[in-house]
Write a structure and sequence with these properties.
With about 375 residues, the protein is an alpha/beta fold. About 45% of the residues lie in helices and about 10% in strands. The chain has 3 domains: about 5-160, Rossmann fold (3-Layer(aba) Sandwich), CATH 3.40.50; about 165-260, no CATH class; about 260-379. The protein has a 5-stranded parallel β-sheet, sandwiched between helices. Strands 6-7 form a two-stranded antiparallel ribbon. Strand 6 and strand 7 form a beta hairpin.
């Protein structure tokens, strides 16, 4: 049975799974947790379930030091709120002596833009050291929030210490394998380009993957459509998040190019190697035969365009050299090709591979049609 993307992310991908365990271990050890994240937590509800959160308290406005505990107690039996002292120090003593939070894990959710400094101070001051007697708190705050020195009963956990780019790539690859809309021979590319477009937010990927025809559409175009239709997860527009790129028509170009470079360049190289292998003797003979340079009006030998040295081994002839050899002649009259290749399909394929390689070399993404054509041989 297919797992929900949220379950796959938090229960099966190593980095997120380890983060859940780190929070669990800290709480079981009687410590509260400050969980620092990049501005969002994907599928936060499931994360709370997996860390055995019993209560969630939303703090949606700035609070003073002596308002924090009364605010939290509003979510518990009324007797605690009624009897809670007005002074902060006495409030701390009260909730500990009454064991208000025994065996409970309270998730404190601070709304965007609300300062968290007083809440952090409270968690540090609480100093619960036994979950069975005093429970624990989990506070999720952005990495941008300033964290003062906290007591030894608080563990600060950084989301990005556990969840890295490799976590996103693995998650996307597993989803791609189970998405019928993505052809098997395009699954690796589809996973790479969608992970790059959506980074660092995995919650955007499942919907994007379901809606994108990877052989015809660029993922960023579909992402914009889904955003406009309001079907994607709500997020604050933060630095590094894909939502911050949506307004710029070319905002995703570098991300797409990087994914294509990682997945398509090796395909081009593999095909080039196969072509050389199939025509090794003819290419070697042509490499050692002078061609007529019409511009300079002299005979020359093919040289490496980077090192400017003679190419002895055909396997060292990059795709641009092979394509050029097909256009050159052995004689001034231009009647004998330097490398005669009778198959028009192979000649056309070499030209196409050169075009794709040049596009990637100039930091320009290949079009969806070109990607589909490039990968069709592996289908």
């Amino acid at each position: 049975m297919r797992k929900e993307p949220s379950e796959l992310w938090w229960e099966n991908i190593t980095g997120p799974q380890q983060l859940v365990s780190a929070v669990e271990y800290a709480v079981q050890d009687g410590r509260s947790v400050i969980l620092r994240h990049p501005g969002f937590l994907p599928w936060e509800g499931l994360l709370r379930d997996l860390t055995r959160v019993t209560d969630t308290v939303i703090i949606d406005r700035p609070v003073k030091k002596d308002e924090i505990i009364p605010n939290i107690l509003e979510h518990f039996p009324r007797k605690y709120a009624i009897n809670c002292p007005p002074v902060y120090k006495n409030q701390l003593e009260f909730i500990k002596s009454q064991h208000v939070f025994q065996e409970r894990t309270v998730w404190l959710s601070v709304k965007s833009g609300v300062p968290a400094d007083q809440i952090i101070r409270f968690i540090s001051d609480y100093r619960g050291d036994d979950h069975r007697d005093y429970g624990a708190f989990i506070l999720a705050v952005s990495e941008e929030a300033s964290i003062p020195t906290v007591s030894e009963t608080v563990k600060v956990i950084h989301y990005q210490d556990y969840v890295r780019a490799s976590s996103l790539r693995l998650f996307t690859a597993l989803l791609a394998e189970d998405t019928p809309r993505i052809p098997e021979h395009m699954a690796e590319y589809g996973a790479a380009v969608m992970a790059s477009v959506c980074a660092p937010d995995p919650e955007l990927i499942p919907e994007l993957m379901e809606e994108t025809d990877i052989s015809r559409q660029m993922p960023d175009t579909v992402l914009r459509q889904l955003w406009q239709e309001g079907v994607l997860a709500e997020r604050d527009v933060l630095p590094g998040h894909p939502y911050g790129l949506l307004a710029n028509e070319k905002g995703f170009e570098t991300r797409i190019w990087r994914a294509q470079l990682q997945t398509l360049f090796s395909v081009i190289e593999a095909e080039r190697t196969d072509i050389v292998k199939a025509h090794y003797d003819d290419i070697r003979e042509a490499l050692h035969t002078p061609y007529w340079d019409k511009k300079e009006e002299e005979f020359r030998i093919i040289k490496d365009p980077v090192n400017h040295c003679v190419i002895d081994d055909p396997y060292d002839a990059e795709i641009g050299v092979l394509a050029r050899m097909l256009t050159l002649y052995r004689d001034k009259e231009e009647t004998k090709k330097l490398w005669y290749l009778p198959e028009p399909e192979t000649r056309e394929r070499i030209g196409f591979l050169r075009m794709c390689r040049n596009s990637l070399a100039h930091i320009t993404p290949c079009s969806p049609d070109s990607v589909a054509r490039l990968l069709e041989k592996s289908g």
